[in-house]
Structures are given as structure tokens and as C-alpha cells.
Amino acid sequence: MNTKRLIIGSLVGLVSLYITGYLIWEVIFAEFFAANSGSATGVDRDPQVIWAIALGSLFYGALLTLALESRSGSTSTVDALKVGAVVGFLLWGTADFILYGYTNLNNLTAAIADTVLEGVRGGICGAIIAIVLSKTGD
To answer: By the 8 A CB rule, do 74 and 66 touch?
Structure first.
């Protein structure tokens, strides 16, 4: 892998992760997660700190790109979807269950649902990154 591919994959990841994250948590499942929040109150930011969300998405995109590019041979879109799903599931399963153990931000139902949805999100974005990187020709 070269630096150009890492930068392109990270930027594609930033955009695709931001959009899919917005759709999943702010549109489709907003009511579900509101109903399954923990006892902690006043933890949501209003307004959100967009630069921090974007930076986190960039890091997540870089992680997905590194996972995809570390595989030997070319990565098909289906393989990228699988790798992205595993990375997203493991990454957010780690975060969700540690946070569940330490905080009252979410209940167990939300921790499980978030982990599964992050697997879906990681898979979608991994596939998008792979498609774009296949077009770069490097």
C-alpha cells in the first residue's frame, strides 16, 4: 500500500462513514436509541462538534483502508464488505461493551444493536472504499 491509497481510502471512508452514520443513528434508528439510552442525562451535545465527528470518521476510514490493503492480492467488493463488517463489529463491540460496563450511556439492548449496526456500517463503507480504490489503478 502506498500513501496515496491510504489518503484516498481514508477520505472516502470519512465521507461514507459520516453519511451512513447520520442515516443510521440520526434518521432510521434515532427513536430506538433514544428509547434505549441509559440513566445518564445531559450527555448529548447540542450542537454537535462536527470537526470531532469528522476526525473520528477519518480515523475509522483509515483503519478500514489499512485492513483492506493489508490483505494479499486484490480485494473484491464482497471481500471488502466482509472485512469492513468484521472490523466495524469488533471495533465498536469493544467500545460499546466497555462503555456499557463503565457508564450509564446506553442499556444492554442499545450496546448490542449498536455493535451489529456498526458491523453493517463498516461493511458498507469497506465496500465503498474498495470500489473507489479499485478505480485508482495504483
So the answer is: no
Query: CA-CA distance, 76 to 53, in Å (whole number)?
Result: 29
Write down the pLDDT at residue 1: 67
Contact 104, 40 (CB under 8 A): yes
Closest CA to 77 of 23, 20, 135: 135
At residue 25, the pLDDT reads 94
The parts of the chain modelled with pLDDT lower than 50 are none
For 52, the enclosing helix (H) or strand (E) is helix 50-69
Q: Using alpha carbons only, how large is the chain's radius of gyration in Å?
A: 16
Torsion angle (degrees, nearest 10) of CA 66, 13, 117, 69: -20
C-alpha cell at 132: 473507489
**21 vs 25: CA distance, rounded Å:** 6
Q: Which residues, 6 or more positions from 91, have their beta carbon under 8 angstroms from its beta carbon?
A: 60, 63, 118, 122
pLDDT tens-digit readout, 65-99: 999 999 876 679 999 999 999 999 999 999 999 99
